[in-house]
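Course assignment 3, question 2. Fill in each field.
Student: A.L.
Task: Predict the tertiary structure for the chain below.
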Amino acid sequence: MDRYSIPSHLDDPELIGFWTLDEFLAMAVPFIWGILTQHVVIGLVLAVFGWWGFRKLKAGRATSWVFHMAYWYLPSSFTGLKATPPSHLRMMVG
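Answer field:
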């Protein structure tokens, strides 16, 4: 028996069940909405389409691609980044 356990894949993202965190959120939000509004079947269908669409959207890209798009296209109050310059500021002095 080995005394040390060496993981075989260091760059694999953390999983919740079979899904990464962002895929899980793309499924959980519509499903929870469906439960709260008492439309469970519609929430389930939207959750499946949300997962499938999000998986197709980020196919072949980095895991943090969605966060990068949020930084570029959403207002800074949405992302909550205070120490970074605004995304429209291309040239910085200094």
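Instructor remarks: The mean pLDDT is 82. The first helix runs from residue 21 to 36.
Grade: pending
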